[in-house]
Amino acid sequence: MRRSRAWVAAVAVLALAGCTDAVAPAPSTSASTAASFAAGAEGAGDPYFPTYGNGGYDVGDYDLRLRYDPARGELNGTATITATATQDLSRFNLDLAFLVARKVTVDGRAATSRSDGNELVITPAAGLASGAAFTVVIDYGGKPQALNNKTLGVGGWLTTRDGAFAIGQPESASTWFPVNDHPSDKATFSLAMTVPGGVEAISNGVPGARSTAAGWTTWTWRESNPLAGYLAFVVIGQYRVRVGTHAGRPMIIAIPESLPATGNAARALDRTGEIADYLATRFGPYPFAAYGGVVLDDDRVGYALETQSRPVYGNTFFRGSANATVVAHELAHQWYGDSVSLRRWQDIWLNEGFATYAEWLWDEHQGERTVQESFDRAYANFDWSIPTGDPGVDHLFSEAVYVRGAMTVQALRHTIGDDAFFALLKSWPAEHRDGNASTEDFIAAAEKASGKDLGDFFEAWLFGDRKPTY
Predict the structure, then answer these.
(1) Does the N-terminal peptide bond of residue 287 adopt cis geometry, omega within 30 degrees of 0?
(2) Domains in the chain, start-ordered, CATH in brackets?
(3) Is the pTM for the entire model greater than 0.85?
């Protein structure tokens, strides 16, 4: 994510709400004893956001068949979720905010469900044995809303004059589909979104067949690489959608009809392929099956977000120029943040530090300031009081994460040398492709690549509260 300078957000610490006590299970056909069955945790256990996500299972795929009526503001449809139990489950939760589950089945059998705040609590007809694959089908709907926390900001489903969109970090998906909403549980994703004829619906991945019947059009999308919940998006409205190819893969650019067809936003996004190709020389092969970008002409969105395969940009970035630097930032996330995702939110510098560093690389590539000049400008007058490697919830999107993170990357380059450094920039996303990783994993990778003990280096640059020696 890249935020415009006019947009400031902070996040609030949420209360721990785990649920791991054993409960009486429904009858099970597994060999597990009844006493072993328990409810899945009500959170993924993230130290920053304990209630985000859920425990007890691992999602493999989301398949959404939805219909949105902009005139009524209603979203209805079916989510089919395939998953695997990671414990003997008597019940489990999915994250679902504001919408109502009308009918739930697990493996074709009716299940009971209830809403508990933003949690959908599901009890299957029979307990699910650890290691068992299962399928949940949820018929649900209602009038989706945004998540509006006074310190976290607004994210999730937002209605517009001609449609709606759903984006946001660190959570948004739960406002429009049932989800295990934590980056540690990634899954493939399909969307069939039916909207009134003449209205566009853009999402992640490769576009599929489009059909129109009785005045309604169904747009289909498929992301075959696992994604974190907050990286799923949908944008509905009046858009100029340009479909092409780049490097043999679909390239979809969507610009609102409210903006000029050849204006700054369009000219910036037209460089998507060029920028992605340059970043591939630094980070290795592009990790997804599609390219593109979507612009939102909405003052509520003062940021850009690295939604997988197709970033979404607030038009605020393009009001003064065809800003290609923000495009470089969000495309860098396709490697650092999307393909290789966080294991816990405190490690967000692995996303934002490297994406900011990609801005510096791109500026140098364009003949503007060098990477070292960008570093020197940041290093000269910086507040080092916030640790990059553990910034706290209130500073999750602060300069300590973005700029100090990028300075850490450049300092690492000088410490281990260009050969080891640029090899590491490629080996890291290659070795962790479609997975999750932590700061500790990166430190180990950097030490392996360089053959050096880097404990003191990372302690100073990521966790110290005073200016590191450079």
Answers:
(1) no
(2) 2-342 (2.60.40.1730), 348-463 (1.10.390.10)
(3) yes
